[in-house]
Specification:
There is one protein chain. By secondary structure, this protein is an alpha/beta fold. It has a domain of 77 residues: Ribosomal Protein L15, Chain: K, domain 2, CATH 3.100.10.10. A 3-stranded parallel sheet has the order 1-3-5. It has a 3-stranded parallel sheet with strand order 2-4-6. The protein is elongated, with a radius of gyration of 33 Å.
Length: 150
């Protein structure tokens, strides 16, 4: 007959290593050593005292990552869609209208305008223009002005 005190649990309890009781003197942790101690964990890069790989390999070369500036390409059609006729488009205006979204952590950034069809006459200030974008702006009566480097 089934009684409450004779029921078996549905899920077995997880064996907690290193807590004593029923597992012998070392409680499933082996004999001595760093892994037998409380809080004894070893970094993944540790190689048993041998000189680790990241220290054996030579440091070579130069990385320009910290000095490079981010370059945003903007399509001329997108600029003419967002701004009105006769507008003066600058980097700040492009950020304000969310055409470009520079990262705050990065410092300087550059804007290059690409494309070959301008719908509206406007003045665009950018760091670089493609030949097609310059021609399209000048054909419609707009201006492509390069910003001066500081």
């Amino acid at each position: 007959m089934v009684q409450l005190h004779t029921l078996q649990p549905l899920v077995k309890k997880k064996k907690r290593v290193g807590r004593g009781g029923g597992r012998g003197g070392t409680s499933g942790k082996g004999h001595k050593g760093q892994k037998a101690r409380s809080g004894g964990s070893i970094k993944a890069s540790f190689e048993g005292g041998q000189m680790p790989l990241h220290r054996r390999l030579p440091k070579r070369g130069f990385s320009n990552l910290q000095f490079q500036s981010e370059i945003f390409t903007v399509d001329l059609k997108r600029v003419t869609d967002v701004f009105d006729e006769g507008a003066e488009v600058t980097k700040e205006a492009l950020i304000e209208k969310k055409v470009i979204r520079p990262r705050k952590s990065k410092g300087a950034f550059k804007v290059k305008v690409l494309g070959n069809q301008a719908i509206k006459k406007m003045i665009i200030h950018a760091d670089a223009f493609s030949k097609g974008a310059q021609k399209a702006l000048s054909d419609i009566g707009g201006e492509a002005r390069l910003t001066e480097e500081k």
